[in-house]
Input
Amino acid sequence: MAAFRTLDDIGDIAGKVALVRVDLNLPMKDGSASDVTRVEAARPTILELCEKGAKVLLLAHFGRPKGQRSSVLSTSMVVGDVEGVLGKELMFIPEVSGPVVEQSIGILSNGDVGLLDNVRFWPGEEANDPDFAKAIAAHGDLFVNDAFSAAHRAHATTEGLAHYLPAYAGRAMEAELKALDAALGNPETPVAAVVGGAKVSSKLDVLTNLVGKVQHLIIGGGMANTFLAARGVDVGKSLCEHDLTDTANKIMDEADHAGCTVHLPYDVVVAKEFAANPASLRTCNVHEVAENEMILDIGPQAVEALADVLKTCRTLVWNGPLGAFETEPFDEATVALAKTAGALTQDGSLVSVAGGGDTVAALAHAGVKDDFTFVSTAGGAFLEWMEGKTLPGVAALSS
Output
């Protein structure tokens, strides 16, 4: 991984203006945030810059206003939530550049925080317009990016600003990049990857990239059915992309050539209807699935075998659940394997990195979110990183 500058590389910034890109795209309920995890992630960076005497201006997007102002999508909606997490008052600034911003900076004291309005109110943000980036940069002395979740987008405030100001990774971004490097960039081998989810089509690039990088590829969720069908297994009325069986075979061939073992379940949990604890629930060998049954989770023997695989590994990357985990009892395989991974991590024998929305929810449900080495809350950026793509917001910090 290319070297990148962090807050440790910043000199004396007392009285300087730090433009800090954060993720404040919070889920809202009844006018306030229902989850402030993203603000908590940015808190160490913001407070460290304040302690160093900088005037901190926060840049963030909120929803998808598509280049138009909208009162309900103003970042002013989250001021109270951000103040609660930081334990500091914020000055809300209803612009991102120009005289209003200039005047506000004059009012702020060293160590104060201002929140600029939704950067996506201006079309120049998503277009990564150099003039828009320059106009924002004119108010700052340095740029700090602490929003890994937006790093896969080449926007003015994620990539453009780095061309006009000294650019640094914030503490959350730094932790994310170090964890990702330890997982796939420069990992301790053997490496296992768990890839779950409903469809192979949404994870094709991930699977193709991983077979060349990991020693064990564990495939779960609905996508495992497509791989089983490719192997000639009759999966009944399970969710399955039959048109992608050739692609699945190609991935398995590539894995063979690369010395990567693909693990598919050999016992599965099936039911005739998808509902909580259905009467038709049973566990069987994959070759015994009836034509009116669907596979909804992997079975206990397969989970035990996968746990044994993890015990031989030093690194684990996890994205996606093994079964239909939102509905009991189809959460059992995901919970059992996640608990094994958490215990191995706590014992110090495994470095475990997980990410993606469903994955975070599944690990929290299993009660092991805090047992993993690192859990990324970034969805699209984490997936693109697993696909082996260069993330523009990260590349801009190392240039």
Observations:
- Residues 167 and 310 are 39 Å apart (CA to CA).
- The first helix runs from residue 37 to 51.
- The first strand starts at residue 17 and ends at 21.
- The mean pLDDT is 94.
